[in-house]
Amino acid sequence: MATMEDCKIICSIESIDTDWTWFYQGHGSCKKKVILIKSKSGNLDSTDKPVFWCTNCRINVTVVSPKFKLHLVVKDDTSTCKLMMLDTIAKAIVGCEALELCDGSYDEIEDPEDLPAPMVHQSCLVERYICHVESKRSRRRIAVASLERERRF
């Protein structure tokens, strides 16, 4: 199996991979993924504040917020590939916080192809980016460590 090295990719966004959801609920402190805890009946009462399990801290938490986890198909002069962009980097592309697009809902997305307007607009742009990819981020998916817009001269 080939090993991936740190690299830079000068690319354009071709599309958003809708096989994956575009956000996750993250713990307010550590920003890692949380899982909604359901009651024995299977649902939370509408008056109850949702309680989540933080998979990183291993505690119940109530302070959570949506975080971007965009799976993008990008294209350079040679080919296409899929990149995963987490919250800070994805915010730079979409132009707003994930919280603004979720309307305070804790529900998971029913139709992953139903994307918020700012994300649809951004995926259609032909603006080019320089993606700094670090090999230590992920073994199965390519995660972008930093991003900048390409300067045109």
TrEMBL record:
User: Residue ranges of the Replication factor A C-terminal domain?
Assistant: 9-136
The identity of this protein, by name, is Uncharacterized protein LOC108851127 isoform X2
The domain of life for this entry's organism is Eukaryota
Q: Which Gene3D superfamilies match?
A: Nucleic acid-binding proteins (2.40.50.140)
Query: Do you know which Pfam families this protein is assigned to?
Result: Rep_fac-A_C (PF08646)
Concerning InterPro entries, the annotation shows: NA-bd_OB-fold (IPR012340), Rep_factor-A_C (IPR013955)
